[in-house]
Specification:
eight-stranded mixed beta sheet; 463 residues; 34% helix; alpha+beta
């Protein structure tokens, strides 16, 4: 492999001027004129394309017809020269080798395609500017998240993907089984059916690494998990996917204000990293998806986040001169329209809503002294709504056990989790950040299906 990255030519063209190089990539566009032809070449290392200039006298018409095709892959030998636009560089081609032909039915012939159409060809949509930029930002953002936690003394923990417990207690899990579907349909004795299954008990794909993360935090102090999670939630909203990636830190000895500060620092850190390291991609997203995107992101970095009591949030919403689709009452969860009103219309910055009613939150959250609320918070951001769910965990054995009993949970599935409250229990807190949610926020892309390589949603398992 002796080809030079296109990004290297585009950013350091002056050092390559008049030098012979080899580049390889896919043809994004091909233009022809009387004496010259031009290829826009992209190899995935840059959002921008490199122009290949072809003197038609140096190539036979047969050669030209073979590689002047959008979507084809080629290897080009040539000399780096200054382009017409000052400061930019291109290559005068001397030899072009066709690596992979591309017929006329290539679906990406046009310059513009709707995101809905591109979802029908996920194996090819990655070659568009939108997905080139999205995947590059996703890579930088993921690395920045790792960097933040590593720089702050957290230990990276790999939690199980296959689990016997449901962290959220909602039952929306994908079952994992070795039994054939037809056998499951015939089974009348569930006990015998499970006894013959691989794990000899019900198993499913994890909805969260939190419970296992708490186990690690009780020994390591500060940990984080970062991996795929799964929700069998039959939802078709732009914000929900059946498979997504989640970052989940757990911090021993941390109470709710402590974990809020960590969450704020993390959000500011990773958004600043995207602003610093993905400038051309953000320029693209600002032009194509959300005007004012960079200003919005910079405002997050520069702002102190608001901390708002749930009770006060309900009061603000009830006094708003807006007709909401969903009712606003104390004891009900906030809907996306409520979250966005608070962040976009009232504060115009991220908001931590704290101390939610315990009946609408998960069993593991610390119960406040009022008996009505839990030490939980959601981080709401303009344009998306909730991107982080956060709480102090219940450290009292009896209170946690009773919360599980009240929800009809099988305590045998959570023996180890309960034991943490018996053997050296400490206050501890954590949160979950969906990677795709923050990707939507930093790119302005409005649908979670478009910030994943392959979207996994109800009724959609396109390979």
């Amino acid at each position: 492999m002796n080809n030079t990255d296109i990004l290297e030519i585009l950013t350091n063209g002056k050092s390559y001027e008049s030098k012979k190089v080899n580049v390889a990539g896919w043809i994004r566009t091909a233009r022809d004129s009387k004496t010259m032809a031009f290829l826009a070449l992209n190899d995935g290392t840059s959002l921008n394309h490199l122009q290949i200039v072809i003197d038609k006298e140096k190539f036979s018409s047969e050669d030209l017809s073979s590689f002047m095709k959008t979507g084809a892959s080629v290897s080009v030998d040539g000399t780096v020269v200054p382009a017409m636009k000052e400061g930019e560089y291109e290559i005068n081609a001397e030899k072009i080798e066709l690596l992979g032909d591309c017929p006329a039915d290539y679906p990406l012939q046009k310059k513009f395609h709707t995101l809905e159409f591109l979802r029908t060809i996920p194996h090819l949509r990655v070659r568009t500017n939108t997905f080139n930029a999205m995947l590059r930002v996703r890579s930088k953002l993921s690395f920045a998240l790792h960097r933040f936690f590593q720089e702050n003394g957290f230990v990276y923990i790999h939690t199980p993907i296959i689990t016997g417990s449901d962290c959220e207690g909602a039952g929306e899990i994908f079952r994992v089984t070795t039994q054939m579907y037809k056998d499951a349909m015939k089974a009348t004795d569930e006990e015998n059916y499970i006894a013959n299954d691989f794990f000899r008990r019900k198993a499913g794909l994890t909805v969260s690494g939190q419970l296992e993360g708490e186990v690690a935090a009780m020994a390591m102090g500060k940990i984080y998990t970062f991996g795929p999670t799964f929700r069998a939630e039959n939802s078709n909203t732009p914000r929900h996917a059946a498979e997504f990636w989640q970052i989940e830190p757990e911090v021993a000895f941390a109470k709710l204000p402590d974990i809020i500060q960590i969450a704020q620092s993390m959000i500011k850190y990773v958004i600043k990293a995207v602003l610093d390291e993905c400038q051309s991609e953000l320029d693209f997203f600002e032009k194509a998806f959300e005007k004012g995107l960079k200003e919005k992101l910079q405002n997050v970095v520069d702002s102190e986040f608001v901390i708002l009591e749930y009770t006060e949030a309900i009061k603000i919403l009830k006094e708003a001169k807006v007709e909401f689709q969903y009712p606003v009452e104390w004891g009900l969860d906030l809907q996306s329209e409520h979250e966005r009103y608070i962040t976009e219309k009232v504060f115009n910055k991220p908001v931590f809503v704290i101390n939610y009613p315990k009946k609408i939150k998960s069993f593991y959250m610390k119960q406040n002294d009022d008996g009505l609320t839990v030490a939980a918070t959601d981080l709401l951001v303009p344009g998306v709504g909730e991107i982080i769910g956060c709480s102090e965990r219940e450290a009292d054995y009896e209170k946690l056990k009773q919360a599980m009993v009240d929800r009809g949970m099988n305590l045998d599935d959570y023996t180890g989790y309960l034991d943490l409250r018996k053997y050296g229990s400490v206050p501890h807190s954590g949160f979950g950040l969906g990677l795709e949610r923050i990707m939507m926020y930093v790119t302005g892309i409005g649908n979670i299906r478009d910030v994943q390589l392959y979207a996994r949603t109800a009724g959609d398992l396109m390979a």
